[in-house]
Amino acid sequence: MTRYKLQTLQFGIVSGIRQDISDRISSAVPGNLFAPEARKGQLFVLTEAVNETSRGKEACDLVAKTITATYYKDSSFSITSSLRHALKSANTMLYEHNYKAAHHQKTAVSLTCAVLRDNDLYIAQVQPTQAYIAHKGQLRALPTYPSWQAGSASPSMLLPNALGTSLFSEPELYRNVLEPGDEVILCSSRLARVLGRAEAERLFCLEDAPSALEELYNIARRNTLTEAHVAVIELLPIVTAAAQSAPLSAEGISERGKAAANAVGDWLSDVTGNAALLLRRPAAHEHDESIEAAGSIHGLQPSDDIHPTSAITEAPVLPSVLEDIDPRDMNWLRGRSRVRPRVTADTEVWPPSAFLGEGSAVPIMSAIASRSAIDLGDHEPLPVDFAAIPQRDPIPPATAGQRITAPFRYLMAAIVTFFANLGRSKRPSAAPLPRFEQSSRGLSYRRTKQRNLPYTAIFALILLGVVGYFVLQNRMLENNETSYQNAFNEANQQLASANQAPTDAEALAKLTTLETLLISMGEDTGLLDDPTREANYKNLRTKADDLRASIERTSLLKNLELAASLPTTNTNDLIGRLLAVPNDATTDLYFLANESGTLYQQQAGSKSPPTVVLAEGAEVPPTIAARIRSMVWREGALAAIDDDEASTAFLSQPDGAWFTPRLDGSELWPAQPFPDIETFGGNLYIWIRGQDSTGQILKYASGEYTSLPTEWITDVPLDVELKSAVDMAIDGKIYLLRSDGAIVVFDAGVYERTIPVPELNPPLTASKMALSNVRPDVGTETHFFIMDTINQRIVELDQDGQMVQQLRVPATSPIKLDKLTDLAVTPPGPQGRQLYIANGSQVFSTVIPAPPAPRKINGSGQAGTTTPAITPTP
C-alpha cells in the first residue's frame, strides 16, 4: 500500500532561458489502476548529452522514449532486470543512431533512471548525471561527488561510460527505502559541480521542495549556467496533519476513505498486472528459446539480436543424450527417436545487482559451470566466521489490515492462478511414453475430473466491490455535505459576532476572519455547484460587504451602467481624459483615446457608436491636426489641444468650424508627461507636472492665446511642496492634488492653505481629482472626488478635508475598477449627482449614493463606537 502522494517539481535552463517543464526530464505516471505503470512503478528519466552537439536533444529524446517503452513492455517481474534491459536497448538504439550520423553529429548520453514502487526506490545511473536522496534528515549523493570526500585533490568528474559510445555500457544500480517526507532529486552534472555539500544538505533536508527548486535556480543564475536540468520528487503524507490530529472529523474520515480506496486500487492493479504478465510470459519464453537456439549457432549470447539476413537457414543437429530405456519393453523404439535435445542453459551470468533488493521476485538464474569438489592442494583450511555471514531479516508480523484482507487476497490469488494455468492446460503435450499394460483390476489414480470455474466466488467478489464502491461514494458525499454546512455555520457565527462587536476595531477583525473564510469557500467548486448553497454564499458576501461599508464609510456602486466605450480593438488604447457636459435631457460625453490621440463624442447610454470629433491628420484649415493630448469645456464650447512642435488650440465655434490659434511658448512644454490644462472664465491654465517642474502655473488670458503666458502664482511659502502634484482643478480657486492625497489651495495667485491627508486604511494614493458643488442654492460648498487607482476606489472629501465616503464596487460584481484613468461629476439634478468613471476603454455611470449610516449592534439599537458619516447640511 502506498502511504504517500507525490509532488514533482522541475525546471530546465536551455541557452540561459528557464523552462518550467524541462525537455530533458520525462516521467511515466499511471493513468488508471490497470496501466503497466501501476504495476511496475513510476519511472522518472533525466538525460544529458555528454558533448552538446546539434543533435544532442534528438539523442536524449530517443534514449528517454526507448527506455520508457522497453521498461514497461518487459515481461520480467524484476524491476532491476527490466531497467537493465531498457538501458541496453537504449544504448543499442543510440549506437546505431551515432553510426549513421556524421562525425560532428555523434553524441553520447548520460542519464539517471528512478523507479518508485511502493516504498522502494530503484536507481539506474550512467554518469556524470547526479542524484540525491534526502531520507530522515540525512543526504545521500549518487554518486558521491569527489569534492565532498576528504583528501580529494580535484573535483573534476571521471570520464563517463555514457550510452552510445560502445555496445557495452553497464549502469550503476542503487536501491533505497523511502518514507513520507523524503525527497529524491535528479540533476544534470553542470549544476552538481557548483553545489556544495553543506548547501545541498540545507536545501534538500531543511527546506520544502518549492523553496529548494527556486534556490537551485538562483544558484544556476549566479554561476551563469546556460544548461541545467533539475527534478525534485517529494513524498507527502497521504493523510494531512489536520486529519491525523482529528481522525473522527469529516476531513479525517474523508482522507482516510480516499487512502483506503487508493490502497484497494493499488492492490487490484498489482493483481491484474501480475495476471496479465503471467499470461504473456509463456509466449515470451517461447520466443526467447527460439532466439537462444538460433543464437547458439553463431556463438552469440541469448540476449543478442538475430538478424533475418543470416546466411544459415537451417540449424544443425544439436548434441543429445540418450533417454532412459525400460529393458522390459523395446517395441516403442521402432517409431520414436532414441535421442532428445539437450536443454541449453542461459550462458549469460547475471550479476547480483540485477536483482538488487527484490526478495519477492524469483528469477531463473542461469546454470553455472560446476567445479571439482576435490581440492588437491595442501593449503591450510581457513576458519569460518559464521557471525560475519549476513543473516536474513526476520519476516515482520502481519498487520491488522493484512490479516483482515488475507481471505480476499487468497481468493484473488486462486482466481489469477486458475486463469494463468488455463492456457497451459489447453496446450498440446507430447505423447506419453508407452508403459506396461495395466491390469484391468485394481484402482486407477489418474485424475480425470475437469476443473470448474468458481463462478460463485467471482460473482460475490464483484458484488462486494460494487457495493463497497457505492457505500464509499455515499459516505464521501455525506462528509462533503457536513463540511459545507459547518463552513456556513462558522461564517454565520463570524458575521453575528462582527455585528455585535462593541468597537469598530473588533468588528473589523471579525470581518477579516469572515472574508478569509468566504474566499476559501468561493474557491471550492463543489460548494458552489448547488444553487441553494451558491445563493447562501452570495447572501453572506453581500452582508459582509454592507457591514464593512458601514464601518469604513464605504458606499458600494451596485448599479454601474456602461455609458460609452472606445470603438477600437487595441487593448492598449485607454481613455485618458473625460468630460461630462449635461444638456436638457441627456449628458454629452467627450473622451480622448491616449494612444491614438482621437477625440470622441457620445451621448451617455446611447446604443449608437461614438463619433469622431477630432483626430490626428484631420484637415482643419489653415492647419492639420496633430495628436490630440488634452481637452477642456471652455465658455460653453469644446476646446482641444494637440501635441506638435508647438501646440495648437482647436476652439469649437457655434457654426461647427474650428478657430485654431497657436499657443505661444508651447514649444517649451515637455512631451512626457503632457501638462495638465484647465480653463476658467475663458482663460487657459497650464500646470507642468513632474519633479523637473518649476512649481509655477502658466496663464493664457482669454483672446490672447498667441501671446506668451504669464505666471499666475505670485506668493507661495518655501515649505509648500508642489513638485509631487499630480492633478489640478479650478472653480475660481485653484486646487493642486498631491500624490499622498493632500490638496494645496491657491486664491488669486496667493497660497491659501493645505487640506491635510485623510486617515484611511489602506493609505490614499491619489492620481486624479474632480470637483462638485453640492449646494449651489446657498453658495459654493465644494466636495473633492479623488481617484485611487491602486486601491480601486474613489474617495469623497468635503471642503475641510473630512472624509464623506469611499466608493467601491462589490466584491461579487463582474466590473473591476482596476484601470481607473479619469472621472467627472455633474451638478445635482432631479436624481442627484451623476458620477462618470473612465475605466480602461469604457465609461461607466451611476448616481452618487448617500453616505452610509453608522453601524448598529443587532438587537439593541445602540450604535457602536463608529464615527458618524458626514452628510451635507441643507
Distance between the termini: 78 Å
Shape by Cα distribution: elongated
Question: What class do helices, strands and sheet pairing give?
Answer: alpha+beta
CATH architecture of the largest domain: 6 Propeller
Overall residue-averaged pLDDT value = 78
Strand ordering within the main sheet: 2-1-11-10-7-8
Question: Can you give the helix content as a percent range?
Answer: 25-40%
The CATH topology annotation of the largest domain reads as Neuraminidase
| The CATH class of the largest domain | Mainly Beta
Number of helices: 13
Report on the structure:
The protein has 13 helices and 40 strands. The chain starts with a strand and ends in a 27-residue tail after the last strand. It folds into 3 domains: 4-238, PPM-type phosphatase domain (Phosphatase 2c, domain 1, 4-Layer Sandwich); 458-552; 561-847, TolB, C-terminal domain (Neuraminidase). A 6-stranded antiparallel beta sheet has the order 2-1-11-10-7-8. Strands 3-4-5-6-9 form a 5-stranded antiparallel beta sheet. β24 and β25 (658-659) form a beta hairpin. α2 packs antiparallel against α3. It is an alpha+beta fold and 874 residues long. Residues 151-158, 288-329, 336-348, 359-373, 375-379 and 859-874 have low confidence and may be disordered.
